[in-house]
Design a protein that fits this description.
Blueprint (H helix, E strand, L loop, with lengths): L2 H23 L1 H6 L2 H12 L4 H6 L2 H17 L8 H12 L2
């Protein structure tokens, strides 16, 4: 197996372990995200970074980055779930009324 293929598999495995750890420790993520879908997002995002770079990132830093991405994915579309009254309240708050 090529070195880059092995490194890519190691990087993805590392990311998967972090995603699983975060999801297991936080019911909010379990409720809002599907592991296979968030892994597709991570795979897509980390494809722009070489596996070597991903493997060099400190575990704590990588965990923070992944947690932030998961939070963004979990909250995306939240406004779509609001009622029209809730949207009015939100809009008024944002406008400072």
């Amino acid at each position: 197996m090529e070195k880059t293929t092995v490194e890519k598999e190691l990087a993805l495995s590392r990311i998967l372990q972090i995603v699983e750890q975060i999801m297991e420790s936080d019911p909010w993520f379990q409720e809002r995200l599907k592991k296979n879908e968030i892994m597709q997002v991570m795979n897509s995002l980390f494809n722009s970074v070489s596996p070597e770079e991903t493997l060099k990132i400190d575990l704590e830093d990588l965990t923070k980055k992944i947690s932030k991405i998961m939070t963004l994915e979990a909250t995306a579309g939240t406004l779509n779930e609001l009622s029209s009254e809730q949207i009015e309240i939100f809009d008024a708050f944002v406008e400072g009324k």
